[in-house]
Amino acid sequence: MAARLGDGAGAPAAVPHAQQPAVSLDQVRAAQRILRGVARTTALEGNRFLTRLIGAPVHFKCENLQRTGSFKVRGAYVRIAGLGPAERAAGVVAASAGNHAQGVALAASLLGVRSTVFMPTGAPLPKIAATREYGAEVRLHGHVVDETLRAAKEYAQRTGAVFIHPFDHPDVIAGQGTVGLEILAQCPQARTVVVGVGGGGLAAGIALAVKSLRPEVRVVGVQAAGSASYPPSLAAGHPVSIEAPVTMADGIRVGRPGELPFALIRDLVDEVRTVSEDALSSAVLLCMERAKLVVEPAGASPVAALLVEPEAFEGPVVAVLSGGNVDPLLLQRILRHGMAAAGRYLSLRLRLTDRPGALATLLGVLTVADANVLDISHVRTDPRLGITEAEVELHLETQGPEHCAEVTKALAEAGYTVMP
């Protein structure tokens, strides 16, 4: 069950707090004009599987197909475009493990501004290479993003370069808010918009745009359970930090909400849910298998929320796929994890008599049961085994939980005992 925090449907467009937000709808509209010819108006694609699941139309807003592979170029370009001549001459600096790095690099190049991007030493090589190809000077520093962030800020103080924050700036939020304007233009009948939340820039911008024009539309944020800083922050009434956020969804692995995004999300987002790593893996797998879209775990978080509790969302629903930049090695692990979570992997150990043809007989049983053997380990020499025994560990690909049960039953009927 997804964790939830919110007061239900119908959040008002007007901000109930005394202080008006630092970002306005006019700024989002101005950002849309600035981005004309720069950011793509990404496609809105229907998804039949999720439509059947929730009983109402579900659409994907495909920011994974945006330039640089994520929405980040929107906010970065608006922020850098707003710099004065002296600031541009000083260059810009950013810290990021991936998407923000590439967004800043491309935006700066398009505007003729020198950019330096600090990335953690363990950042995936494809993301480092892409950031360089977009025109940034990449400096590897630190093992975690916090260390990288400190290095970037020190560089800004030392050189005078302008630090481009990934989410906590009005221009950045306005740029990300253009996604919300596009959603309303492409799907005017939308009743719910679901978006992943890290620091909160994208969710804040979308909520501002959507609620200003269509206050009845429900906006739902989604965080990874191991990196969910917004539920405790909303409960406390101010941003609070969580220690050591852990999730495969590095795009939303942020330990503390931004001050500006927090205020907007507090006032305009109806609900913030959390999803497990299993749900994220299943969502990435669904996007690839059913929608033929490569989506990173952070980008698939809205899909994960729909899978976990489909009855909680009123349609038509727009799920924002915020990015598609995922390291191929990580993607391989995620897909395997997603298949396991969906009951399509079966791992088991069993013992058999160590005689010629015993392994072939076992494989014959699995063939009849239509189980695909991915890996097999055959152990004969182990102090735990009798002199005539062998142990076999199997990793099988199945068609789902029911097929797993059928395979296990077939093994039992053939006289094999599955080990705990």
Write the layout of secondary structure elements.
Blueprint: E1 3-6, H1 25-34, E2 44-46, H2 48-54, E3 58-62, H3 72-81, H4 85-90, E4 92-95, H5 99-110, E5 115-119, H6 125-133, E6 137-140, H7 145-159, E7 162-163, H8 170-186, E8 192-196, H9 201-213, E9 218-224, H10 230-236, H11 259-268, E10 271-275, H12 277-291, H13 297-308, E11 317-321, H14 328-341, E12 345-353, H15 358-368, E13 372-379, E14 389-397, H16 401-413, E15 417-419
Parallel strand pairs: 3-11, 4-5, 4-7, 5-6, 8-9, 8-11, 9-10
Antiparallel strand pairs: 1-10, 2-3, 12-14, 12-15, 13-14
Helix pairs in contact: 1-8, 3-5, 3-8, 5-6, 8-9, 9-11, 12-13, 12-14
Give a quick precis of the structure:
This protein is α/β, with parallel strands linked by helices. The chain has 16 helices and 15 strands.
Helix content: 40-55%
Radius of gyration equals 25 Å
The portion of residues forming beta strands comes to: 15-25%
Unreliable stretches covering 5 or more consecutive residues: 1-18
Largest sheet: 7 strands, mixed
Instruction: Kindly report the CATH topology of the largest domain.
Output: Rossmann fold
Overall pLDDT score: 88
Number of helices: 16
Number of domains: 3
Strand order of the largest sheet: 1-10-9-8-11-3-2
